[in-house]
Amino acid sequence: MQNIKKILFSIILVITMFMLPAHHVMADDNSNVNNTNDTSVKDIKEKGTLVVGVSADYPPYEFTAKVGDKTKYVGMDIDIARKIADDLGVKLELKNMDFDSLLVALETHKIDGVISAINPTPERRKNVDFTELYYSGKQVILVNEADRDKYQTKADFNGQTIGAQTGSLLYDLVKEQMPKAKVKGLAKLNNLVIALQTGKVQGVAMDQPTAEAYAVNNKGLVIMDPKFKVDADQTGYAMAFAKGSDALVDAANKSISEIKEQNLITNDYIPKASKYMKTTTEDNDLIDYWSYFLKGIEYTLLITAISVVIGFILGTLLALMRLSDNKIAHAISVAYIEFIRGTPLMVQVMFVYFGIGAVVQSLPALVAGIIATSLNSGAYIAEIIRSGIDSIEKGQTEAARSLGLTKNQTYRYVVIPQALKNIWPALGNEFITLIKESSIVSIIGVTDLMYQTQLVQSATYKGVAPLFVTMIIYFIMTFSLSKVLGHFERKMNHD
């Protein structure tokens, strides 16, 4: 109960900030630009945690493994981050999200650092600070075994489609060095492998250790060497920190130097990652991951339930404002509804988490997801309620007023009950849609059903089977809700 109160309080706080003019946010954001005092290490030690962002779908660097009934983030990158945190004397906290969202999260201070096999390119150095390189790998292309003889060189892919992770060095390499091939970018490597197995792409560009992991665990996949031309400083990987965090970078470099001196990556980190990968391969039946799906269902239903309540309250308020004779209230309602309906939910989720979250530093991803879906749903519910009220004949209102009812009483006892009966099917559709649309919050690391599905894909190296299970679960949830809504609809019609 206490946690729910905290979530609701955070939602109210951020919704209030969401309605503030944009220049207030910018003013607060710019207030730190001129801060030349580097307190990065001091701040980390004071809070006692080092929050590091990862994209845990890139074995052996960072991936997930099932240890008992719990999900564990493992891999050489995770061990490096843990070493840095231990040397700082703090706990390591990991946040898993899409690869192309990591640097955004770092720049908006949602995390303290990023370690996810990131190449410190000149473009990235303009926005974040990097440590020295901790590892260098080779870039290859994963292809179907049936096409082993067909694709031997880069030129063999002319006119074909190559998949690469969005925002990665490999995406740029394919685009620049294979100009006659089409490049398809996706945020998750698992989805690119699925695209390869289903013939949507003819190859997937990735780091060699990662390609070997997928090839070992999928008999139908093999590796080919396209002989990419890469500068020496581009082949390596480094950890990223916020711009101006010189002290934190220096502290991380000390840990990385020790790792190199003791040869920990070769002697300890990679063998440990390989062991987890081997264990996963030996026991990767989907039934063993039921707890993953169960946790995803729990969060999906929580997000949907809270968003439905807030969305309905907000939608009712906006509908009444739009129908009001008050021009200011009417204008605010129209502007809000048109703006929210005119922008994608994904953008709204990212804006609330990364944009407003840059001001409200402690805003959790779960709360941000609930806020975004609630604000989005409220705009659509407002139009549903408004149309329902407009469908009531004016004679009903006039009759009620002639009997001495006030305007508020007329709405409460005459208009709203009849309108609710008319709009119930449309409201039901919106609630069902909300269950499915809540899957978008996975992009900011909320552990909903879609997020958990991606963890299962990463842990089992299976792409299609976990998606099929997720489809069945979503169908069961939406079908059950439609039956409940249908029961109340028949009851209202009977009355």
Automatic annotation (TrEMBL):
Where is the protein situated, by its record's location annotation? Answer: Cell membrane
Q: Does the keyword Transferase apply?
A: no
Supply one GO molecular-function term.
transmembrane transporter activity
Q: Which Pfam families match?
A: BPD_transp_1, SBP_bac_3
Q: Please tell me one Gene Ontology term that the record gives under cellular component.
A: ATP-binding cassette (ABC) transporter complex
Identification of the protein by name: Amino acid ABC transporter
**Keyword Signal, does the record have it?**
yes
At the top level, the lineage of the source is: Bacteria
User: Residues of the signal sequence?
Assistant: 1-27
Instruction: Please give the CDD domains that the UniProt record associates with this protein.
Output: TM_PBP2 (cd06261)
Q: Predominant location of this chain?
A: membrane
The protein's topology relative to the membrane is: Multi-pass membrane protein
Q: Which SUPFAM superfamilies is this protein grouped with? A: MetI-like, Periplasmic binding protein-like II
Which key words tag this protein in UniProt?
Answer: Amino-acid transport, Cell membrane, Membrane, Signal, Transmembrane, Transmembrane helix, Transport
Q: Which residue windows are transmembrane per the record?
A: 299-320, 351-372, 464-485
Q: Which family does it belong to?
A: Belongs to the binding-protein-dependent transport system permease family. HisMQ subfamily.
> Which residue ranges does the record assign to the ABC transmembrane type-1 domain?
297-485
Q: Name one GO biological process term.
A: amino acid transport
